Amino acid sequence: MLSYLVRRLLLIIPTLFGIMLINFAVVQVLPGGPVEQVIAELTGQGVAATSRVSQQTGDIAGGGGETRSVASDSSTTGAYRGAQGLSPEFIAELERQFGLDKPAHERFLLMLRNYAVFDFGESFFRGRPVVDLVIEKMDVSISLGLWTTLITYLVCIPLGVAKATRDGSRFDLWTSGAIIVGYAIPSFLFAVLLIILFASGTYWEVFPLRGLTSVGSSEWPWYQQVADYFWHIALPVFAMVVGGFATLTMLTKNSFLDQLGQQYVITARAKGLTENRVLYGHVFRNAMLIVIAGFPGAFVAILFGSSLLIEVIFSLDGLGLLGFEAALNRDYPVMFGTLYFFSLLGLLMNIVGDIMYTIVDPRIDFERRAV
Questions:
Q1: What CA–CA distance (Å, rounded) separates 124 from 121?
Q2: DSSP 31
Q3: Does residue 78 have a pLDDT over 60?
Q4: Whole-angstrom Cα distance, residue 122 to residue 112?
Q5: Sign of the dihedral defined by the CA atoms of residues 275, 276, 281, 282, in that order
Q6: Are 16 and 337 in contact (CB under 8 A)?
């Protein structure tokens, strides 16, 4: 197992390189960029994705020079569309401040060298280190991802087992219909419905509309802070959980049904073992192999891929919203820094998933298979 883990860890290096190279190349050919964002703000030709860009533009402009009225000849301001009225010296200073005055390959190699020591730089428009921004937003995304994953597993595994043991019954049919309906409704649409019903005051005003904590809750006793936290997280987590029931429940059911038809189950029943002993003493471990071992990957997928719209709807300032705003504003340090961090975490979680396979079923030996 040790040599397998070493090979997998070494494989992370070329995988990360490929991910960063492809995304860096794509960004180079996309229209727009941080310089264009500043030009659009200064010339009144565009609106930033967030007010933070507007707040930082004045600081960037102030440090880089002043605008001057010049001829409208496009050669005066280089290749930037909409830059008429801005001096070429000012544009060059903007490029220098954003680090765009170097060739693309030099910027890519410099970025990789910095990322190798986890130096992600500072945000173009927020004026803060990327690491600080990620750490600040992490608690929101971890709260959503962790509770969503745990509740999904705690509900879907027993439900899937019950459906497998009652395959074809009315219980199986009704629960299948319910989870398919939940799967068919997008999580963001379900979130809006929950707000209308339980948070807007139109019907019942039971839960808060935004945030993870109440104002002034830091001065409350710890048990009130815990209760306040769960009060705020209830609706967004519920909105994310409902859509995730179908896949895991049906995976658990089908895995159990597959194992129930195996020869060892027939042998165990022939020996006179009770049904519970057969199910939970023999079938459960084999059936749960793929379900339990997939927990790390499921958590990463929910943590970084499913919470953007939920964060927007419930005004939760998490990693999903941070990455979305960075992409719209062309905030390259935040874009590539978070991409590198999330990709590395995802690759490590895949290795953790393999380790969990061997824990759930020690008969699995990764040493005998190629990476």
A1: 9
A2: S
A3: no
A4: 15
A5: positive
A6: no
3-state secondary structure 256-288: HHHHHCCHHHHHHHHCCCCHHHHHHHHHHHHHC
Q: How many CA atoms lie within 13 A of 338 on its CB side?
A: 27
Cα–Cα–Cα angle for 311, 315, 318, nearest 5°?
Answer: 45
246, amino acid identity = A
Cβ(370)–Cβ(6) below 8 Å: no
Name the amino acid, one letter, at 120. F
Distance between CA atoms of 236 and 25, rounded to whole angstroms?
Answer: 36
- C-alpha span between 41 and 35 (Å, rounded): 10
Q: What is the mean pLDDT of the chain?
A: 76
How many residues appear in the chain? Answer: 371
**pLDDT tens profile 51-71:** 454 445 455 555 544 433 333
Tokens encoding 105: 């390959």
pLDDT digits (tens, 9 = 90+) for 18-41: 998 998 888 877 777 666 766 666
157-186: b or e for each residue (b if 16 or more CB lie within 10 Å)? bebbbbbbbeeeeeebeebeeebeebbeee
Q: Among candidates 150, 146, 158, 145, which has minimal Cα distance to 288?
A: 158
Contact 265, 282 (CB under 8 A): yes
- Per the DSSP assignment, residues forming a β-bridge with 321 are none
d(CA 192, CA 112): 41
Q: Output the pLDDT for position 371.
A: 45
Two tokens, residue 336? 């590539």
- DSSP conformational letter for 220: S
Query: What CA–CA distances, in Å, run from 33 to 29, 62, 332?
Result: 10, 19, 9
Contact residues for 294 (Cβ-Cβ < 8 A; gap 6+) = 353
Distance CA 40, CA 84 (A): 11
Q: How confident is the model at residue 45 (pLDDT cuts 50, 70, 90)?
A: low
> Residue 133 and residue 307: Cα distance in Å, rounded?
17
Q: In the 8-state DSSP scheme, what is residue 129? A: B
